[in-house]
Amino acid sequence: MDDRIDLWNELAAQLGVDSIRSTTEAGSGHPTSSLSAAHLVAVLFADHLRTDLDDPRSPANDRFLLSKGHAAPVLYAALKAVGAIDDATMMTLRRFGSPIQGHPAPVPELPWVEAATGSLGQGPAIGLGMALAMRMDDSPARVWVMLGDSESAEGSVWEAFEAASYHGLANLACVLDLNRLGQRGPTMHERDADAFLLRAHDYGWQALAIDGHDVAAIDAAYREAAEQDRPTLIVARTVKGHGVSEVADQEGWHGKAMPKDLAERAIEELGGVRSITITPPKPEPWLPPTAPPPAGASAPTFEDDVATRKAFGATLAWLAGERADLVVLDGEVGNSTHTEDVEKAAPEHFVQMYIAEQALIGAATGLQALGKTAFAATFGAFLTRAFDQVRMASIGRADLRLCGSHAGVSIGEDGPSQMALEDLAMFRAINGSTVLYPSDPYATARLVAAMADLPGISYLRTTREATPSLYGPDEDFPIGGSKTLRDGDDVTIVAAGITVHEALRGADRLAADGVSARVLDCYSVKPIDAAALRAAASDTPLLVVVEDHRIEGGLGDAVLDALASSGATAARVRKLAVTEMPGSGSPEELRAWAGIDADAIVRAATSAT
Ligand SMILES: Cc1ncc(C[n+]2csc(CCOP(=O)(O)OP(=O)(O)O)c2C)c(N)n1
Fold first, then answer.
1. 182 CB less than 6 Å from ligand 1?
2. 103 CB under 6 A from ligand 1?
């Protein structure tokens, strides 16, 4: 044991020294946040984080998530100590083109990092998703999440805590680095460990406090966490900048690299540069469960008028029988989004996350990191409150399938608090995203099935009200495509989702007046069918783009972007969209009020021709 204690202490000193070396070389970074966590990380990597270094993505491996992602130098130092990266690579911290970025991000060169962190408060929910994935596969692996104390003011931390105990995730532990200081000064609770212990107990966690620089106590706490029948919080009392007397426990040193002379003194005080290498413990032998064969059932068919949200649920329920890796998460609105169809048909593929959208997206991110095909759904309006989680998932190269129901003013009487009116803009802005907005059940079914195999962040927007089928079960809906539902050469009406039905009504009325209108169903808002739009712009003198979304950033802007980047066009473009604050009313009244119904389309088409 004494040998181990010496090793852990020496390793912690090395992690601290390496954090100082890399940040001083970079001229920026967070050495003091790394020093407070050095003993905690050293004991974890040396004796508790069971990892097959030859197979970093093995589902049998334990996972470590640095929720306080700014302490990345200590993570990179630990990866060096286990031989995953070399010293030279570690020393490229924060350099242009280096995989050793300022905050951890899962780039191909770093398979040991599986989620992006650095926007604080997100690690616990991602860890929860990973722990869920492990439990679904009966894996004996565990998840360790390291949190900052100032970070723990984030509500998203506590959303995840509550969900983790509700789901009985004994394979999840969080280590809270209670170093008293945040970015600009002391935290709300400073050294009050009880503030966190009591809260964790209330949330159904096992919780204990230790001295976060006493390696024997850390080891004992990690062992205890692994034996619990519930998730565990270890509150570790630490000192920010520990071991370096000139900065320890001092304000004003957060996020600052030490100048060279101070770094030299600090390294000397910590006992100098070391080159200890450690071999992490091996994971327990474990074989992934054999996936049941696909049921081979046919995709759902639809009769009468069916809302696209209903088709979404029916398609997922079918997919659950075809794909063992499918997991569907609900934000306690499954009877609205229709994910309840999955809960009924295949409860083992369903996870209830309740009204905690940040935890919903975080958990989906963790599930997909461990190989699950995760779909998450709630009202489109409510996904906006998890936009940062979506943004971070995209930085983390996550494959997320998201569905927002109750799009636009068309939800009617419930009023504006329930209306998704900014969601297209939000999801279009995500790097590499796919944004889909089907107008009928068959388009929905095809697009949902396609989403299951799409990389990156994909978003499906669904409609509350029932709409007639426009297509048959054999119609294809390639991503990036569109459908020409009417041909014409006086005007092109570009629509998606609910406004496709208004566009068809408008086109019929225009036809009666002798105006021939082309109707494009742009079910793929991103990527958009630029070729079809270019053709429309050269064939017809006017494009009327109509959408149930705010005028900023939605379909209209997608059309303009496509035309602008494809070169000049002779056609004029008019955007019909929501420009003022809606209230309650019937869907028809609200579409008329917003100027996005058939009448408005006819007016726009004829006043300009
Ligand atoms: C959501 C979010 N808000 C603000 C920041 C900026 N920020 C980076 S580190 C930090 C302080 C973190 O303090 P703490 O969690 O106590 O970690 P420590 O560095 O003290 O270990 C802040 C405010 C951020 N990265 N994410």
1. yes
2. no
Give the pLDDT score at 568: 59
Lowest pLDDT segment from 8-22, 276-290, 429-443: 276-290
> What residue spans of 82-239 are helical by DSSP H?
87-90, 123-136, 155-166, 193-202, 215-226
Give the H/E segment covering residue 554: none
Q: How far is the CA of 186 from the centre of ligand 1 (A)?
A: 12
In this structure, how many other beta carbons lie within 10 angstroms of the beta carbon of residue 273? 14
Tell whether ligand 1 has an atom less than 6 A from the beta carbon of residue 529.
Answer: no
pTM: 0.97
Which pLDDT tens digit goes with each residue over 222-261? Answer: 999 999 999 999 999 999 999 999 999 999 999 999 999 9
Q: How far is the CA of 161 from the centre of ligand 1 (A)?
A: 19
Q: Closest Cα to residue 45, out of 86, 15, 1, 6?
A: 15
Atom number, ligand 1, closest to the C-alpha of residue 181: 20
For residue range 415-454, list pLDDT tens digits in order. 999 999 999 999 999 999 999 999 999 999 999 999 999 9
Does 9 score more than 90 pLDDT?
yes
The amino acid occupying position 596 is: I
Return the CA Rg of the chain: 27
Distance CA 353, CA 343 (A): 12
Predicted local confidence at residue 522, as pLDDT: 98
Q: Are 316 and 289 in contact (CB under 8 A)?
A: no
pLDDT digits 0-9 by tens, 148-193: 999 999 999 999 999 999 999 999 999 999 999 999 999 999 999 9
Angle in degrees, CA 581, 387, 256, rounded to 5? 125
- Evaluate: CB of 148 within 6 angstroms of ligand 1: yes
> Measured from the CA of 187, which atom of ligand 1 is nearest?
16
Ligand 1 centre distance from Cα of residue 150 (Å): 6
Q: Cβ(240) to ligand 1 under 6 A?
A: yes
Q: Whose CA is nearest to atom 23 of ligand 1?
A: 183
- Tell me the CA distances in angstroms from 366 to 65, 122, 129, 360, 370, one per residue in order: 10, 11, 4, 10, 7
Distance 147 CA to ligand 1 centre (A): 10
Active-site residue, 588 included: no
Task: Give tens-digit pLDDT for 480-523.
Answer: 999 999 999 999 999 999 999 999 999 999 999 999 999 999 99
Cβ neighbors of 129 (< 8 A, separation 6 or more) are 362, 363, 364, 365, 366, 367, 368, 369, 370, 374
- Structure confidence at residue 304 as a pLDDT band (50, 70, 90): confident
Residue 168 CA to ligand 1 center (angstroms) comes to: 29
Hey, whose CA ends up nearest to atom 12 of ligand 1? 182
Main-chain phi, psi angles of 33, to 5 degrees: -70, -25
- For a mutational test of ligand 1's pocket, the pick from 23, 41, 150, i.e. the residue with the most ligand atoms closer than 8 A to its C-beta, is 150
